[in-house]
Amino acid sequence: MLDKIKSLSKDTLIYGTSTILGRFLNFLFVPIYTNLFMPGEFGVVANVYAYIAILNVFFTIGLESGYFKFASTLEVGSEKENFSHPFLGIFINSFVLSAILFIFSKDFSAVFQVSLKYESVIKYTALILFFDAVAIVPFAYLRLKHKPMKFAVIRLTNIILTVAFNVFFIVVLRKGIEYVFITNVIASVVTFALLSPIVIKNIKISFNKKLLGELLRFSLPYIPAGISSNIIQVINRPIMTALTNDETVGVFQANYRLGIFMMLFVSMFEFAWRPFFLQNAEEPDAKKLYSKVMTAFLSVSAIIFIFLTFFIDDIVAIPLPHKGHLVGKAYWGGLAIVPLILLAYVFYGMYINMMAGIYIEKKTKYLPYITGAAAFINVVTNFALIPPFGMTGAAVATLLSYIAMFIGIYMASQKFYRIEYEFKKIFALLGLMLVSYALYLIVRPFDLLYLKIVFFLAMTSAIFVFKIINPKTIRQFSK
Prior knowledge:
Layout: H1 2-27, H2 29-36, H3 39-60, H4 63-73, H5 79-103, H6 105-111, H7 119-134, H8 136-144, H9 148-172, H10 178-202, H11 209-219, H12 222-234, H13 236-243, H14 246-256, H15 260-279, H16 286-316, H17 338-360, H18 367-389, H19 391-416, H20 423-443, H21 449-465, H22 471-477
Helix pairs in contact: 1-9, 1-15, 2-9, 3-7, 3-12, 3-14, 4-5, 4-8, 4-11, 5-7, 6-7, 7-10, 9-10, 12-18, 13-14, 13-18, 15-16, 15-17, 16-17, 16-20, 16-21, 17-19, 18-19, 20-21
């Protein structure tokens, strides 16, 4: 079992290296944007990307998940058919939707809450959505075929291009926010070009009625589930725009992005986790293995959370070489939301862990109910909490939504695929995170670095003192 967890960790590390480096380079946009754009301009960028995240679900129509399920078993159709059917489905659907968005961009400006002077942004959005969607299945192919290095190189190329052109257009030429989207279009086109050999190698023009039916039955529940999941992540921006102003949205977005450090870990884990649990589903100790993975995941998450909670104020104040800080001073008023966003990502990671049972037992029809309920909670609590509490209310709404998703997936997965999780350790780790957050609220006004260090060491030491993580296991794991 330890060997299997080590294998998962190695894949996570490789996927994570590309994700961490890529997202870190992407994170460089925060100091660029917050030091060069006014909060209102940054708010427009944040709002449009929120809509991109929601629309992405309509473009991919859940077929990535269907590809993973049926291409991993080949229970219906050939290998090329299992690649071609989801790829062509996404391609045709995305082309039609992108054409509509591109041609009627002026009409969609009001829907995107964008003034007509930024109409071109809607056209660029249509292109971004198309090229990102058609890259989904080729990327999934690399993950399923255990080619994390190639996956990592292509992902990093995308991010490096995005950063390089952002620096050129925004920093050097001092162009406006439209060039944020132009840069994304360039990177997305190049990415698909790099993936095109995979498409050429695996494409097969055929029609397998049974495979298509199975794909749609399995994948379509991911559409409402994906919409709901994306609503939870981004709907607070449009709601905040309606209830407050672009400046508030800009400050919120800058600080929300500081949750990237937890999101990185969750994302890199998710890339490795899905193929891992599918390939080990038939093992006799699979459920025990999944339980251990949950504890290991949460242990690492706790250490990341505790560190960032205590030191986020010091991190954002790091001076840049020439002028400004890691995050512009105009945005520091929203730092208090960062621990809430970090904790929300922890619960999202636990939700991803528990997806295994639903996936293995083909009970994806329950996902829309789980994520739909969480999305409803998110919208209601955003409208209820933003007026009195501002961006803090939006952060709390996000956290409550992810907790609801976790509870929902736990109830459904345990009904069909019961796993005996190590709940004593899980509750102990969550308790340490909550205590750390309480201490952060107490010590933050005093801004005493030595006190933060003491509390951080005390909280992380407790993980080992109470044997939530066994040092002996770590020594065996590192061999």
